Amino acid sequence: MSMPLRDPLTDLPPPCADAPRFGPSPRRATRQVRVGGIAVGGDAPVVVQSMTNTDTADVASTTKQVADLWRAGSELVRVTVNTPEAAAAVPRIVEKLAMMNVHVPIIGDFHYNGHQLLAGEPACAQALAKYRINPGNVGFGKKRDTQFAQLIEFAMQYDKPVRIGANWGSLDQALAAQLMDENHARAEPWDAGRVLREALIRSALDSADRAVALGLPADRIILSAKVSGVQELIAVYRELATRGTYALHLGLTEAGIGSKGIVASSAALAVLLQEGIGDTIRISLTPDPGASRTQEVIVAQELLQTLGLRAFTPMVTACPGCGRTTSEFFQELAKSVQEHVRDKMPTWKITHPGAENLTLAVMGCVVNGPGESRHANIGISLPGTGEAPAAPVFIDGEKAKTLRGDNIAQEFVAMIDDYVESKYGR
Ligand code: SF4
């Protein structure tokens, strides 16, 4: 008896019971921390934050950059507070931002002299929404514990949360040496990398526990333990996530410039976010000379949105183009559509809530164009080489119109605006 032929497309084996889960794991349970008006941790969405690179003492340029970062979507902005002049500038920056109707919590980044600056500028201590403390840079020798305690006391006095942010580049050397000694006594010593990762984790956790012992509630503490290597960062945060319920700030430190920084940060953070680890993120990019600081905000938003964790701005699906695309028109249209919706989003956020969930497709030819366009809310399939000079537009899976002539770009953008108006307008 002959065996029936098997159709490889339809005769699939039964699904495996332990097939990998689809989508991110549930968020790890953390204590929620209020930073100004923004909730971090608990059931709050993962928060996007950024940091200025201006001299904080320069009130005008710092105010402008904070406003730019906020307009780009940064929900928290950190500024360097390193000198008495910078500390004195903070309340003026916060006041100017309020006058501009920019209401973003400002975080002060302190190293070495934070205790003196907060003591010398009570208005700065009051104006900041959170203090960032690096346990490796609080002070040296016997002064370290005293100065750390002073910082925590200021946080309690002014009712502020803190981030205890350990960093590979400023690891608490005394703790690292202690753990190295303990490691030598192990029957099976760890490798040096694991000891250093443990030192970083312990530096953050021990400092947080010390802050709690001093009287700061645990729901006013966010932790971070940043390194510059992708695999090390994943290992550190996986471990940190198992050892407490403090809210976690994720970021790859010194990620680098250009595509290297974007890829490295995205690779590390995507793995952790997919595992439900992380309550707020910062993408630490080195901007190209003269480039806008806001790129780190856009990358952070796009990372969260492509993972399906949050929606910030309509997503444009575009094919890469190939030998079938006849001109640069297709690339220009994809770019102008992306820029158009990004420019519109701050207004739509208020006037057309939900528009951030819109999906768009700009495709270069008939091969995948109509199919991909049907999957989007609005999609256009441009004519490729040798195709009729017509661009069908699909709305919610149905062919709605065919655009022709010299004004395809303007007409397509107008259709997007009409769709947003009819679907999300109040
Ligand atoms: S949709 Fe067409 S133009 Fe775009 S990559 Fe595929 S074949 Fe090339």
From TrEMBL:
It catalyses: (2E)-4-hydroxy-3-methylbut-2-enyl diphosphate + oxidized [flavodoxin] + H2O + 2 H(+) = 2-C-methyl-D-erythritol 2,4-cyclic diphosphate + reduced [flavodoxin]. Residues 316-417 form the IspG C-terminal domain. Its cofactor is [4Fe-4S] cluster. Its EC number is 1.17.7.3. Pfam families: GcpE (PF04551), GcpE_C (PF26540). Converts 2C-methyl-D-erythritol 2,4-cyclodiphosphate (ME-2,4cPP) into 1-hydroxy-2-methyl-2-(E)-butenyl 4-diphosphate. InterPro entries: Dihydropteroate_synth-like_sf, IspG_bac, IspG_bac-typ, IspG_C, IspG_TIM, NO2/SO3_Rdtase_4Fe4S_sf. Pathway: Isoprenoid biosynthesis; isopentenyl diphosphate biosynthesis via DXP pathway; isopentenyl diphosphate from 1-deoxy-D-xylulose 5-phosphate: step 5/6. Residues 30-300 form the IspG TIM-barrel domain. Belongs to the IspG family. It comes from the Bacteria. The keyword Metal-binding applies. [4Fe-4S] cluster binds at residues 319, 322, 365, 372. Residues 1-28 are annotated as: Disordered. It is an enzyme of class 1 (oxidoreductase). This is 4-hydroxy-3-methylbut-2-en-1-yl diphosphate synthase (flavodoxin). It comes from Lysobacter helvus. Binds 1 [4Fe-4S] cluster. The gene is ispG.
